[in-house]
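Reminder to self: keep the SMILES exactly as supplied, no canonicalising. Ligand is zinc ion.
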Amino acid sequence: MRRRDLLIAGLGSCVAGCLSRESTSGPRNDSTGIEPDGNGPSDVDPDDDPAEDTASDAVDPSPFEDFEDLSPWTSDGGTLTADDATYYSGTQAARIDVRPRDRRGAIRRTFAEPVDLTGNGLSLALRATADIYPRIQLFDTDGNRLDLRAPVRAGVPFQSYPFGIDHDGGCDRSAVSELRILTYTGGGESLSLWCDHLARTPRPDTPVVLFQFDDGSVTDYTQAAPILESHGYPATTFVNPDAIGGRDALDLEQLAELQAGGWTVGSHAHSHDSLSSLEPAIQEARIREGKQWLIDHGFEAGAEYFAYPYSDYDATTLELVDEYHRLGFAAGWPATGRVPNRLLAPRRGDPDPAEARRLLDLTIRHDGVLTLLFHSMWDLADAEYHVDDFEAIVDYVHEKERKGDLEVCSVAEFESRLVAAESPAPYR
Ligand SMILES: [Zn+2]
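Structure tokens returned for the bound complex:
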């Protein structure tokens, strides 16, 4: 069975009924699902980690895993077992059960010979019973650390997640001697986490940046487009057709003009709902009608692309986006390698200039991929997001782009160059 078929089969067995999740409330902002530091108060700073001994009894020099043999791994929080009933590839996955008394779930292994990870990102297939933001930690032979992270939604079948960079502690990726996978709970919770199929993901030769906009604000046209156009940068606007032509919203003529100027017009679902809170039939209608509206109004190219409202999804949503779209975007960490799963391309929302510089510098240092997402922006003193901040970010991108440190891509270029058609083969 091909990986893709396996994935679909897994989704089909878990549509509707087996998921329950409170609807996401709060500001109309698709980056709110994830704070830059992840889990909030329960997410203990790993610098406090008391267990730093790295005595090695490992026998396998490779850093990557199909988790068919768990003997190199030890538990460092929670209980580690092999699960041959729930897995992504091969015959089993590593299962970590975290009890209320555990502060975290964690597994670790060392390598007899340091491993060279230069030029590679990492992806990991995960499944969890709670919404978590797990880390992969790499340690070099001097103990310097690199933290990679991805958001994982409760109850969703195994997905291969692209891990972006959360903390760069100066780890020499050419000499990685220890690998950890962990998620902090702060104690008091039970959860189960399955890990499988840790794989290298190639990085682009030149770091890549994408500009995206959600919710169809008129400021895409009046504010952002002129700034991007002055540098010839493409962008994508993900719109909710039910809001087009409304107050402070883009109208059809402006959308057509944006497209003529090199923008892509994608779907943000027909209306802006937390999709996981809707019945499957309603979800299907929102996603199908959002796409159909784009096709009916001359935006066929963008109709292939989707951005999850509030970055919210469940198993049904993923199955539907797989059916109706070629690519789906949700919140995640920056500076990934090639995206291993076309349903879950990561992006970062509404950074201020300082945060954007940090994200861009990480992306440049690690030869990564970064999608920057914005919403409305106004030239007003009390604006929630000020257009001057956006302009400062674009200027910084331009400064780096002029030096050849990065390039700005359209979503179509991104798709053709940096999204795996199939999930990556496991490392053997
Ligand atoms: Zn939105």
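Points to follow up:
The CA atoms of residues 48 and 393 lie 33 Å apart.
The longest strand covers residues 104-115.
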